[in-house]
Design goal:
Structural class: alpha/beta
Distance between the termini: 19 Å
Strand order of the largest sheet: 2-3-1-4-5
Protein name: Shikimate kinase
Number of strands: 5
Strand content: 5-15%
Keywords: Amino-acid biosynthesis, Aromatic amino acid biosynthesis, ATP-binding, Cytoplasm, Kinase, Magnesium, Metal-binding, Nucleotide-binding, Transferase
Bound molecules: shikimate-3-phosphate
Order of helices and strands: EHEHHHEHEHHEH
CATH topology: Rossmann fold
Function: Catalyzes the specific phosphorylation of the 3-hydroxyl group of shikimic acid using ATP as a cosubstrate.
CATH architecture: 3-Layer(aba) Sandwich
InterPro entries: P-loop_NTPase, Shikimate/glucono_kinase, Shikimate_kinase/TSH1, Shikimate_kinase_CS
Number of helices: 8
Family: Belongs to the shikimate kinase family.
């Protein structure tokens, strides 16, 4: 980024259930910087939880808020930044990520479903999560790879081990 503003020291991307928030917090702790999550920023911006934004305003509106949230965070946050799983769908977001250190957390279908099943509700995975997840990944994997400077396979690794691998790879 230009203009003398701050930029994230590192950005985490990957599908729901890849561990972006958990690993992001660990990485922020180890690097001694703050953690920020654009999903939380969007909820603050909208004044409601993400599932409600999807229901009340629809996914396109959510994606607009998401581009705004990523632009804001990428320009002002100098810590670790986790993006929502679908953030890479927006070309504007992919452009914002150019030149930043971006870690893509790869996750196997089974692990992701296990994690998101226990976690906060994801509107896009509410019905038939396995099929939905497979479809999401077909569309998104090329985009994650496009923005990533580092790819970490999370399979069989604890969040601590994933954080170690990310730090080693950076
Ligand atoms: C989404 C992932 C969610 C959240 C929204 C849409 C997606 O974030 O942004 O529900 O399209 O994959 P997480 O990846 O943090 O679950």
């Amino acid at each position: 980024p230009t203009g003398g503003g701050t930029a994230p020291v590192l950005v985490l991307v990957g599908p729901p259930g890849s561990g972006k928030s958990t690993v992001g917090r660990l990485l922020a702790d180890r690097l001694g910087v703050a953690f920020r999550d654009t999903d939380a920023d969007i909820e603050r911006l909208a004044g409601k939880p993400i599932p409600e934004i999807f229901i009340d305003e629809g996914e396109p509106h959510f994606r607009e808020l998401e581009v705004r949230a990523v632009r804001e965070a990428a320009g002002t946050h100098d810590g670790v930044l986790a993006l929502g799983g679908g953030a890479v769908l927006a070309e504007a977001t992919r452009t914002l990520l150019a030149g930043l250190r971006v870690v893509y957390l790869e996750v196997a279908l089974g692990d992701a479903v296990k994690r998101v099943g226990l976690d906060a509700p994801r509107p896009l995975l509410a019905v038939n999560p396995r099929a939905a997840w497979r479809e999401l990944m077909e569309a998104r994997r090329p985009l994650y790879l496009e923005v990533a400077t580092v790819v970490i396979d999370t399979e069989g690794r604890t969040p601590e081990q994933v954080a170690d691998a990310a730090l080693e790879a950076l």
